[in-house]
Amino acid sequence: MTTHYPSTIIALIKNLSRLPGIGEKTAERLAMHILKVPLKEASGLAESILKVKEKVRLCNKCFGLSDSEVCKICSDVNREQNVLCVVEQPGDLVALEKSGAFKGLYHVLQGVLSPMEGVGPDDIRIRELEKRISEERIKEVVIATGTNVEGEATACYIAEVLGILPVKVTRIASGVPIGGDLKYVDQVTLRKAMETRHVF
Predict the structure, then answer these.
(1) 104-148 pLDDT per residue, tens
(2) Which residue segment(s) compose the domain that 36 sits in?
(3) How far apart are CA 133 and CA 105, in angstroms?
(4) Coil, strand or helix: which one is 66?
(5) Which terminus of the chain has fewer CB atoms gathered within 10 Å of its CB, N or C?
(6) CA distance 154 to 115
(7) Domain-embedded: residue 109
(8) DSSP string, 115-170
(9) What DSSP state is assigned to residue 37?
(10) What is the pTM of this model?
(11) What is residue 1's three-state secondary structure?
């Protein structure tokens, strides 16, 4: 840490460097930028950070991020009300929304099963998922968890739990990415792509 700055700037650099992916040099550049911008702009930044901490909560229905009790997606009557996409985290929901590929509702688990880390079914939103399926007359559940070990284990567990309910359970496809060169694709991905091949 460079000590020739005033203590207020040093404190700002320290706080900025605590952010993920921000090292000391980047934090220093950001601090200098904040120092140069007009007071109104710096106040706007500080205010937006405080508002996020004060207002953002989990949606009461899908457990995604929201600044009201029910998020915009759950409130949108134009969405497919009987199709539910299960994702691990709010960031996964955002990624799917940006793709424009899904027009139904979501259910955010807020994690994945990980026995090694002590995360079991009661630690993520699986019970709430079962309740939603019954109450909201969901016809299809699309499982969109990750393809790593924890994501696959979570997908299998959910499929098993939902097997006794009158709902269709599907899993997003996984395999070789568009533009991918086969010789650089890992063996697990190649095997998955071969197993989920379809008629051309």
Answers:
(1) 999 999 999 988 888 888 899 999 999 999 899 899 999 999 888
(2) 7-55
(3) 12
(4) strand
(5) C
(6) 11
(7) yes
(8) GGGTB-GGGTTHHHHHHHHHHTT--EEEE---SSHHHHHHHHHHHHHHTTSS-EEE
(9) S
(10) 0.82
(11) coil
